[in-house]
Amino acid sequence: MTLDHRPNESVFTWSAPPLKFGEGAVDEIAYDIRSFGASSALIITDPGVREGGVPDRVAELVGATGIECEVFDGVAIEPTDISIAEAAEYARGRDWGCYIAIGGGSALDTAKAVNLLTTHEGELIEFITPPIGGGRKPDQPLKPLIAIPTTAGTGSESTNICVVDMLSLHLKAGVSSPALKPRLAIVDPVTTYTMPPQVTASSGMDVLSHALESYTATSYNRMPAAEDPTKRPAFCGANEVSDVWCEMALGLVGTHLRRAVINGRDRDARRQLALASMYAGTGFGNAGTHLPHANAYPVAGAVKDYQAEGYPEMPMVPHGQAVSSTAVEVFRWTYVSNPERHLKAASLLSGQTFTEADGADALPSVLASLMQDIDMPRGLRSFGYGESDLDTLVDGTLKQTRQLAVVPRPLDRNAARAIFERSL
């Protein structure tokens, strides 16, 4: 391995889209679209979300102002290169003035990819982060995108990242560019009221993982300095601004996730989780996620038969389950990189006080207790993985260069394999 002798970074970047938050925020969308000067809008969503009524209500509100509006509800539950290509082909049917994404991370990420592919020539793989894809950067203006999350989990409404399941490669990969960031995020807790318990639990673990990973990521001032200030990575490392949002998110998840899973009609819990998702999204969208997410992509991409409760009947590992599947062992392993920060995270999540005497087991024990309380799957064997799959999982993780860049400890193949093995 060639040593990088560049000096450490002294600058970090931080950004987030304009945000509208609160009960009833969706009802004001017609005013927001008019501010973009758009004469047409394509709503991108999935069949389950459409059944809940929000996309058609939004279409009615938009159409009442004279803006032409259609609903595309063909988003896959876990967006793939194939499903995104189909959505982009539909969108190319006319020159839309703007896009509206309504749903969980699948709808929001699909809309980002559609926006990219309808404003640029080429295939999606060209834009995927290396070494999986070509790492091409968008060089044309994208259309305005309004993101309306209906789950408290993805944080995609706040980020410049979209994640894709590359079916032929059996792993997930991402596209990352400031151009993908939504022009406006509308977070309305009312849209999350109908989430079933296991979807609430999985989404909540995604929020938790976003906050924890960003909070424990390599600090920006330990990263190599950018050779070109215009090309600083989207994941710049832990920083003083993201830290604030991550700490807020951890406290809210620790207090409210159990309540929301137990009682989906607990409006205060739903509202606080929506805030937590937004906070964590603005944190990780800049600082970056690391190893739990890097591990999650092959866990989700290589699944064969697992059926997740509360989700459509198809082989899939929901993203929140995938990121939490190795989290306990990852944070036990990363403890030595910053014990104080790991202990503080455990305290924020649990409301208890932890000291160095509690050591590397503090945060893993808090995580394990929470996961047990909300009935998350325990171990990779729950998804059908065993010792024979370890090489496949490790190979997939080591290709996730965007996440690996901010892992707070040097990671080699042996360390990655040991984490997966302990997570079986």
From TrEMBL:
Presence of keyword Transit peptide: yes
Domain Alcohol dehydrogenase iron-type/glycerol dehydrogenase GldA: 20-189
Family the entry assigns: Belongs to the iron-containing alcohol dehydrogenase family. Hydroxyacid-oxoacid transhydrogenase subfamily.
Organism: Candidatus Nesterenkonia stercoripullorum
Keyword Oxidoreductase: yes
EC assignment: 1.1.99.24
SUPFAM superfamilies given in the database record: Dehydroquinate synthase-like (SSF56796)
Gene3D superfamilies found in the cross-reference section: 3.40.50.1970, Dehydroquinate synthase-like - alpha domain (1.20.1090.10)
Lineage: Bacteria, Bacillati, Actinomycetota, Actinomycetes, Micrococcales
Catalytic activity: 4-hydroxybutanoate + 2-oxoglutarate = (R)-2-hydroxyglutarate + succinate semialdehyde; (S)-3-hydroxybutanoate + 2-oxoglutarate = (R)-2-hydroxyglutarate + acetoacetate
GO MF: alcohol dehydrogenase (NAD+) activity; hydroxyacid-oxoacid transhydrogenase activity; metal ion binding
Protein name (record): hydroxyacid-oxoacid transhydrogenase
InterPro entries with a match to the protein in the record: ADH_Fe/GldA, ADH_Fe_C, ADH_Fe_CS, Alcohol_dehydrogenase_Fe, HOT
Occurrences of domain Fe-containing alcohol dehydrogenase-like C-terminal (ranges): 237-423
Keywords in alphabetical order: Oxidoreductase, Transit peptide
